[in-house]
Design a protein that fits this description.
The complex is a heterodimer. By secondary structure, chain A is of the alpha+beta class. Chain A is built from twelve helices and 18 strands. In chain A, the strands form five sheets. In chain A, strands 7, 8, 9, 10, 11 and 12 form a six-stranded antiparallel beta sheet that branches. A four-stranded antiparallel beta sheet of chain A has the order 1-6-2-3, covered by helices on one side. The longest helix of chain A has 17 residues. Chain A is elongated, with a radius of gyration of 26 Å. Helices cover about 35% and strands about 20% of the residues of chain B. The longest helix of chain B has 13 residues. Chain B starts with 10 loop residues before the first strand and ends with a helix. The chains are: A alpha+beta, B alpha/beta. Chains A and B meet through helix 4 and helix 8 of A and helix 4 and helix 5 of B.
C-alpha cells in the first residue's frame, strides 16, 4: 500500500526523523494560511502517488503568501503527468506547503528487503534527488549498500561506514547516525516494503532532514497495522481494482480488449502471454484464486464487463481446488443477471470439468468452448476479427 | 527414487483441524500419503480421519516419528509454525499458507540457517512424488509416475504443464512448487541440484515468472553444473512494469525482472526455452527423444 508524501512525513516525524515544517492544504486559501504561518519562502508540492512531480510542474517555489496561493491555484485540480503516472496523468487534490531552505548537500537514502540475501538492505548515494533506478542504471558505483542482519539490527560500524562513504562531515555525524537508525526502525516496525528519503538534505545551517519521503507497505502485514487503514487514498487507485479487492479478487487493469478470468497468478500471467501470442491484447490480469466460490466468480465476471474496452472474455480455468462446476455456476449466474453482449470463450480442465460444461450448456447464453489454452486464445482473437457471437 | 518425499515419508499436518487443513488432509490421505499426525494447539486427543491430533509439534514428532510437515495455518501464524516444526527436528517443512509478512520470512530464513531443516514455500502448492506421496493442494489425478522433474513458482501453471505431460504419456519423478513469494525456502538452484543427483530423473522442467532474478541465477547454475536437459518457461511476458501480478514476488521493478531478460539468460545457459505455455508438454517430449 502506497501513501502520500505528507503522510510518510508524519510517520517519519513520529520516529524523530526531522522533516521540514509545513502542512497539507486542499484549497489555495488553506495554502495561503500555511505560508503565512511559516513565513518566508515556501515550497508548494502536489500530493500524488507518483514520482517526478517537479519535472511535471507539480512543485513550485513561492516567496510570499500571495505567491503560495497562486501556486496552489495552479496545482490543485491540475492533471499532473510524470514518467510514473502514465500518459493519462493524475488529478491533484492536495498540496503540501513547506518551509524553503538553503541546501548544501543532497543524498539518497532508502531501505528495501533484498530477495537474494533475504535481508533488509540500506542503499545510499551522494547522487541525491535523482531517481535511484536511474543512478543504478547509469552509475551503479555511486550506490553504496549495507545488508542488515535482522537479529542484530543496524550496527554502529555500518552507520560509520555509510557516513564515511557519503562524506558526511563530523559536525553532523550524530544527526545523520540518529536519522539512519530511526529510518531502519521505521522500516521494520511499520512493515515497509520501501522507506525512501530522496533527497535527504543538509542545509547551510547544518540541519539534516528528509526533504521528500516515499513509503510503501507490505500488504501481507496490514493485519497488524490498523493505524495505516485511514491513510489509503482510493482516489489514487484504479476504481475497478478497488472494487475487485473488496471482493477479494486479484485484478489489474491493462490496455487490451480481451478480458481474462483465470485461477492462479502464474496461469493468469500465462493466459495473458498466450493471448498476445495469438495476436490479441489482454484487457486485464484477473486471478480468482483457489478458494473462489460462485459469488466471487460472478463478481469477477461483472468487473470484467465494467471495462468498456472489453470486446471478448476468455475464461481459462485449471480446476484444482476451484472446481469447474463451481466456476460454471458463477459464470452462468453472471450472464443471466447482467446483459452480456460480447463473446465468452471458456476453457476448463481438471476437477469436475464435465459437470462444468453441462452447466454452461444449460445457460441461456452461447458460450464458445475451447479445448486448450492456445485454442481458447485463438478463438477469442478470432471473434474480435469477425465480430461474431 | 524421486526427491525429498516418497512412500516412506511420515507426514504431519499443522493446522489439521482448520477447514483447509482438514480438506487437504483427506485429499492427501486418499492419494496414499502416509499421514501420521496432526497439530492444532488445544485440540490434542481428537482424531481427524483416524489421524491423532497433538498440541505441539515436538510431542507429535516424539509420539509418531513424523519427519515431514505441511502447514495450513493462517498466514499470521505461519512463520511461528515453520519455526516450531524446525525446532522439533522436522527435516522438511512444506508451507502452503499465503500472505506471510516479508519481515517474518526474513526471520524464518535466519532461524532455519542454523537448523537442519529444509523449507518449501511459503505460498506454494506443495510437493508430489506421483504414486507415492502428495503433500499439498495439487490435484493428484493429473500426475503420472515417471522421470521428469518439475520445479515451478506457480501453482495452476504447474498443473497445466503436468497435465500436458501426462496427456502425452510423460510421467514425473517429483514436482515441487517453490512458491510465489519474494523470500522462499527451497529455490530453483536447490531443487535443480537435487534433480541432477537423482538417478530416477532424466530431465527437468522449470517454470519461472517475472520478478527478482532467481531464474537468471538458476540459468547460470544449470550452465555450470547440470548435465541433464532442462526445459524452461517464464510467465509474465506481457506484464506491465511496477505492478504486482498476484504473487507477492511477481513484479518488474526498475526495469528488472522482466520475462525477456529471463528468457535470454535461459537461452544463453543452453536451456530449451518454450515461449508458449500450451506447448510445454510438446517441448518436453521433443527434448526427451
Amino acid at each position: 500500500m502506497k501513501i502520500h508524501e505528507y503522510q510518510a512525513k508524519e510517520i517519519l516525524k513520529a520516529y524523530k526523523i526531522p522533516v521540514p515544517k509545513g502542512n497539507v492544504a486542499t484549497t489555495p486559501t488553506e495554502a495561503c494560511k500555511i505560508a503565512e504561518e511559516l513565513g518566508g519562502t515556501v515550497v508548494v508540492k502536489a500530493q500524488i502517488h507518483a514520482g517526478g512531480r517537479g519535472k511535471g510542474g507539480g512543485v513550485k517555489l513561492a516567496h510570499t503568501p500571495a505567491e503560495a496561493t497562486k501556486a496552489a491555484e495552479e496545482i490543485i485540480g491540475m492533471t499532473l503527468i510524470t514518467h510514473q503516472t502514465g500518459p493519462e496523468g493524475r488529478l491533484v487534490k492536495r498540496v503540501l506547503v513547506e518551509e524553503g531552505m538553503k541546501i548544501v548537500k543532497e543524498l539518497y537514502l532508502g531501505i528495501v528487503i533484498d530477495r537474494a540475501s533475504a535481508s533488509p538492505v540500506i542503499m545510499a548515494s551522494e547522487a541525491g534527488g535523482m531517481d535511484i533506478e536511474e543512478i543504478a542504471e547509469t552509475s551503479p558505483e555511486k550506490i553504496i549498500k549495507e545488508t542488515i542482519d535482522i537479529s542484530a539490527g543496524i550496527m554502529p560500524y555500518q552507520v560509520r561506514r555509510m557516513a564515511f562513504a557519503l562524506n558526511i562531515k563530523k559536525e553532523i555525524f550524530k544527526d545523520f547516525s540518529l536519522l539512519l537508525t530511526n529510518l531502519y526502525k521505521t522500516f521494520i516496525e511499520m512493515d515497509c516494503s520501501i522507506a525512501e528519503i530522496n533527497p535527504l538534505v543538509i542545509t547551510d545551517n547544518g540541519r539534516v532532514l528528509a526533504l521528500d519521503a516515499k513509503m510503501d507497505f507490505d500488504d501481507n502485514a496490514q493485519y497488524r497495522h490498523k493505524e495505516l487503514i485511514d491513510l489509503r487514498d482510493f482516489d489514487e487507485e484504479e476504481p475497478l481494482e478497488v472494487e475487485a479487492s473488496r471482493h477479494r479478487l486479484n485484478y489489474i487493469k491493462l490496455d487490451g480488449n480481451i478480458g481474462c478470468m483465470v485461477n492462479g497468478a502464474g496461469l493468469a500471467m500465462g493466459t495473458m502471454d498466450i493471448i498476445k501470442l495469438a495476436g490479441g491484447e489482454p484487457a486485464n490480469f484477473l486471478d480468482v484464486g483457489g478458494g473462489a466460490n460462485e459469488e466471487m466468480v460472478e463478481n469477477a465476471f461483472k468487473i470484467l464487463m465494467k471495462d468498456k474496452n472489453v470486446k471478448a472474455v476468455f475464461i481459462n480455468i485449471f480446476g484444482g481446488i476451484l472446481r469447474c462446476d463451481v466456476l460454471a455456476k458463477g459464470v452462468k449466474q453472471a450472464v443471466e443477471n447482467i446483459k452480456v453482449s460480447v463473446p465468452v470463450i471458456v476453457r476448463m480442465e481438471g476437477t469436475n470439468f464435465e459437470e462444468g460444461k453441462e452447466i454452461l450448456k444449460s445457460a441461456d447464453f452461447n458460450f464458445i468452448i475451447a479445448s486448450g489454452m492456445m485454442d481458447g486464445a485463438q478463438k477469442a482473437v478470432a471473434t474480435l476479427k469477425t465480430g461474431n457471437r | 527414487m524421486s526427491i525429498l518425499v516418497n512412500k516412506d515419508t511420515r507426514l504431519l499436518v499443522q493446522g489439521i483441524t482448520g477447514a483447509e487443513g482438514r480438506f487437504h488432509t483427506e485429499q492427501c490421505q486418499k492419494y496414499g500419503t502416509n499421514i501420521v499426525a496432526g497439530v492444532t494447539p488445544g485440540k490434542e486427543g481428537e482424531k481427524i480421519f483416524g489421524i491423532p491430533v497433538f498440541n505441539t509439534v515436538s510431542k507429535a514428532v516424539k509420539e509418531t516419528g513424523a519427519n515431514v510437515s505441511v502447514i495450513f495455518v493462517p498466514a499470521q501464524f505461519a512463520a511461528d509454525a515453520i519455526m516450531e516444526a524446525a525446532d522439533a527436528g522436522i527435516s522438511l517443512v512444506v508451507c502452503i499458507s499465503e500472505g506471510i509478512p516479508i519481515i517474518e520470512m526474513v526471520k524464518v530464513k535466519m532461524f532455519l540457517a542454523n537448523k537442519g531443516t529444509r523449507l518449501i514455500g511459503p505460498n506454494c502448492p506443495g510437493i508430489i512424488t506421483p504414486g507415492e506421496a502428495k503433500i499439498g493442494i495439487m490435484p493428484g489425478h493429473i500426475h503420472k509416475k515417471g522421470r521428469v522433474g518439475v520445479i515451478s513458482r506457480s501453482g495452476t501453471l504447474t498443473y497445466e504443464v503436468v497435465a500436458q505431460m501426462t496427456a502425452l504419456g510423460i510421467g514425473q519423478s517429483t514436482c515441487i512448487g517453490i512458491g510465489g513469494d519474494p523470500i522462499i525456502g527451497t529455490n530453483f538452484i536447490d531443487a535443480l541440484a537435487l534433480f541432477e543427483e537423482d538417478k530416477d530423473t532424466d530431465m527437468v522442467c522449470m517454470v519461472g515468472e517475472i520478478g527478482g532474478n532467481a531464474e537468471e541465477t538458476a540459468a547460470a547454475f544449470i550452465k555450470e553444473n547440470m548435465k541433464k536437459p532442462v526445459v524452461g518457461f517464464i510467465a509474465g511476458q506481457t506484464a506491465p512494469q511496477g505492478r504486482r501480478m498476484g504473487h507477492a514476488g511477481a513484479i518488474i521493478s526498475g526495469g528488472k525482472g522482466t520475462a525477456a531478460e529471463k528468457f535470454r539468460a535461459m537461452e544463453e545457459a543452453g536451456i530449451h526455452v518454450c515461449r508458449n505455455p500450451s506447448e510445454l508438454g510438446k517441448t518436453i517430449a521433443s527434448v526427451l527423444q
